[in-house]
From TrEMBL:
The species this protein was found in: Lasiosphaeria hispida
Domain of life: Eukaryota
Residues spanning the signal sequence: none
Protein family membership: Belongs to the AIM32 family.
Listed name of the protein: Altered inheritance of mitochondria protein 32
One Pfam family here: Suc_Fer-like
Gene3D superfamilies, per database record: Glutaredoxin (3.40.30.10)
């Protein structure tokens, strides 16, 4: 047994040690598989990285994700961005507007309800009127898609925050706030009526950190893994959709619902900006929609969840598709954490 004096000098309390022991023996709330299966076919080789930018294979990655309530995924149509995404296009971008409201020190910033704003390579939906300037966003794990957010009105950004992103209930730490202050931090569903065309997102979303403007490891791994997922998913019977979501077209309901002829589901694969943990590249988040079924037609064990993986190499992609996407099993050796649809952070 480690002496308490040593634990204290290391900043570790006996209570924390006991907690970690109890967590280690607790049964995970989802199916798991310890290791990723070896690929059954040829895949891209593991890329070589510049000297000094090695992948950390020693640190335990389970639990190494930041707590968050929602990801706001901005559809930029670009594969990469400046290190600070709010500086893209000289600061004229949706990520900058959102962080002004819900970022650290923002008007509606709440340390107990963290909103993580990311850029993605997904293109935005195109409005029927070409002169309109709009941007699309995904809200995850709410699994909502907002096709048309006007870029000439800050009021629409505020409507998104007030109508969809603020919490429905405040943390008990806010009990001492005045009623007016509490009211300002709570969600107002009436604002949802100001945003047109918002719908459920029922596609599998595979998000690969490819933020080369922030770290070269992600810039190298990201596009490589994106290509591998786009190759492996159709082999497993999952159609990969590309191009903007045609939100104005009534005959696209089948594609938007994720149900496609002869296939289990549909997916979109995109690159995203920094999510933390460059040294654990490739970093992948798989968001599995609430209505997802397994390959056998049963309820999917991970439906409505977002699963974070780290140290993903091309040789792991087939296993992630087979075990996580099709069967609903978390691969323990790659697992960084996850989130359920109700915002609960998942750890082993």
């Amino acid at each position: 047994m480690i002496p308490r004096s040593i634990l204290r000098r290391a900043g570790v309390t006996p209570f924390l040690v006991a907690t970690r022991r109890s967590l280690a023996t607790k049964t995970p709330p989802f199916p798991t598989i310890p290791n990723c299966p070896s690929p059954t076919c040829a895949c891209a080789p593991t890329p070589e990285l510049p000297e000094g930018l090695e992948i950390d294979h020693k640190t335990k990655i389970s639990g190494l994700i930041s707590s968050y309530a929602q990801h706001v995924l901005v559809c930029t149509g670009k594969p990469d961005w400046p290190s600070r995404i709010e500086e893209d296009n000289s600061g004229d971008n949706l990520a900058a507007d959102l962080r002004e409201l819900v970022g650290r020190g923002g008007v509606f910033s709440d340390p107990f309800h963290n909103i993580s704003v990311l850029n993605s390579s997904f293109p935005s939906s195109k409005p029927q009127r070409a002169e309109l300037q709009t941007t699309s966003v995904y809200l995850l794990p709410s699994f909502k898609y907002v096709p048309f957010l006007p870029r000439v009105s800050f009021e629409s950004v505020e409507a998104l925050v007030k109508g969809y992103l603020l919490p429905e209930k405040l943390h008990s730490a806010h009990d001492g706030l005045s009623p007016i202050h509490k009211d300002r931090l709570l969600r107002k569903p009436a604002y949802q009526n100001l945003l047109l065309g918002v719908r459920d997102s029922n596609d599998i979303l595979v998000l690969v950190c490819g933020h080369g403007g922030r770290d070269k490891r992600c810039g190298i791994y990201g596009p490589l893994l994106q290509d591998e997922f786009e190759r492996q998913l159709p082999e497993a019977g999952v159609e990969v959709l590309s191009g903007p979501v045609e939100a104005d077209m009534p005959d696209t309901a089948e594609a938007l619902s994720g149900q496609t002829s002869g296939r289990v589901h549909s997916a979109r694969v995109g690159l995203i900006s920094h999510i933390g943990g460059h040294k654990f590249a490739g970093n992948v988040i798989v968001y599995l929609p609430p209505d997802l079924k397994t390959s056998g037609g049963e309820a999917h064990p991970l439906a409505g969840h977002g699963i974070w993986y780290g140290r993903v190499e091309p040789k792991h992609v087939e296993g992630i598709v087979t075990e996580t996407v099709l069967k609903g099993k978390v691969i323990t050796e790659l697992f960084r954490g996850g989130i359920s649809q109700d915002g609960k952070i998942l750890r082993l």
